[in-house]
Each structure stands twice: as structure tokens, then as C-alpha cells.
């Protein structure tokens, strides 16, 4: 009984670790401001469907990164530094485009509102919601969680529960923020929404630059050790 309680406490602590590590970098509140600006004035049912799709895609992307990220990178001979540098450049470029132009989203009048769902994965999930920073954190968590829960396998029940529950909580918050982003937009007004969007775009650009800098710094550190 004591062992079971200890395992439950350990899983709960690791779940909190997953949420605490991913939530700041995913930043659902800031991403929601960018999201609502990119999709324009779509109908509420379509916004709900798009938000749900993004949350589901984000969940599977983060889970795959956590469970198989290291193996996938090893298979293709890609280092985590390359992911950080290349992905960081994409994020920084996206943030700069949004900051300079106000929107880099899909024009719903051109492609049709229903077809906007085809863009749920790119760019709304990757890189707007789950960028290289989130993927890097998920991969790092995948390497850390087994030791945290005193197991040798990333696929042990304790690790899987902590990872799945933690990521599900983050993605549920993403869904809520995206689903009700239009209500927040109406509350803030056009001027307030523009300020929040510009600020979020600037932060997104800075996050991209920071990810690139971190990747370069980590790579140079390994070269220096050699």
C-alpha cells in the first residue's frame, strides 16, 4: 500500500514537472493572440473545430517528441542543436513576419473557411503552437523522466501516465485559449488586440532568437570539450 502511494506521488510530481516545463514555452495565452489574428473572423463552430484539431495535433506531436524524439534524431543523424538552430530560425522568421505584416495566416476569403482546417497542422500547430523550443523540451523530458521515476524504460507505465497526463493538460489549456480567443478579442477591442498580438509576435521572434542562441552555445560547448 505504501509503495502504491509512493508511486502515485512520484507520478503526480512528474506530471507537474511535465506541465511546468512545457506550459511556459508553449505559452497558450500568447499563442492564442497570434492565432486569432491569423484566422480572421471565422465562424464560431469553425474556430472550435480548428482549435480542437490544433490541440490534438499538439498532443501527438509532443508525445511523439517525448517518447521517440531521441531515437528519431539518432536515426537521421540529427543533433538536438540542429533542431534548435533550424527550428529557432523558423520561429524567429514567423514572429518577424507577424510583427511586420500583422498577419501571416491563411486568407479565409481566398481559400474558403472550411479549407482553413487543412492548415491546422502547419502553421497553426507547428510552429505557432508547438515550436522547436517545445519539441526540445519534450525530448529532454523523455530523457529525464525514466530516471526521475526510477525506471529504465521510457515506456514504463509510470512514465507513460506522467507524460500523457501532463501533455494532455497543456493541450487542453491550448484548446480553451484558442477556442475562446475571439471572446477575449472582443473584450480587449481592436486596439487592445493589436497591442497584444504585436507584443506576442515580438516575444515569439525573441523566443526563436533565444532558441538559436541556445543551440549555438550548446554546440560550441561540445566542440570546446573536444
From TrEMBL:
Top-level taxon of origin: Bacteria
Compartment(s) of residence: Cell membrane
GO annotations of cellular component type: plasma membrane
Main location: membrane
Residue spans crossing the bilayer: 21-42, 54-72, 78-99, 159-181, 201-220
Pfam families xrefs: MarC
UniProt keyword annotations, A-Z: Cell membrane, Membrane, Transmembrane, Transmembrane helix
Membrane topology qualifier: Multi-pass membrane protein
PANTHER family for this protein: UPF0056 MEMBRANE PROTEIN YHCE (PTHR33508:SF1)
Family: Belongs to the UPF0056 (MarC) family.
Listed name of the protein: UPF0056 membrane protein
Source organism of the structure: Alloacidobacterium dinghuense
